[in-house]
Amino acid sequence: MKNQKFNIVNAQSNIDWVGKKVTGAHNGTIAIKEGELILNDGQLSGGKFIIDTTSIRILDVTDPATNAQFAGHLASDDFFSIETYPEAMLEITAVSGNHVEGALTIKGITHPVGFDTAIRVNEDLLTATGQLIIDRTKYGIRFRSGNFFKDLGDTLIYNDFELNISITAKAA
């Protein structure tokens, strides 16, 4: 059995996020700070990566003042509390075929997650993609959630948000 470690190239890796609300959606990016993936006989077997929550960007709001206000709100305690929690983490705990089980930590709160991934290895370069659907309320992010607040009408924000992960990693 051959174990191989791949270090994530953060400049070539990112996460695209989508948050939805009654009246539409917002999207943006968030950076992967560092991490590694472990392959055993060419198959993913483990790994973890650190997400830089201070890097969250909003792409669909083009007015600079509105974008800055929105980014400040995402950074606040209503959402990601980035001053207290500048990092989030995903650790892979089990892999079966192309299905990954892991532990996602946001705001110091950890919950299990499961998602499918596509991995390609070309000599010393690995690329991986996957999509996670996360219930934000499990991580203490309750702002305008219908589970916790009544009569929100068209200001309701859906609990689930989407993370589309794209990773490039080089053999260590």
UniProtKB/TrEMBL annotation:
Question: What superkingdom does the record give?
Answer: Bacteria
User: Where's the Lipid/polyisoprenoid-binding YceI-like domain?
Assistant: 5-170
Listed Pfam families: YceI
Residue stretches in coiled coil: none
Return the InterPro entries for the record.
Lipid/polyisoprenoid-bd_YceI, TTHA0802/YceI-like_sf
Question: By what name is this protein known?
Answer: YceI family protein
Q: Whose protein is this, by species?
A: Chitinophaga hostae
Lineage, opening ranks: Bacteria, Pseudomonadati, Bacteroidota, Chitinophagia, Chitinophagales
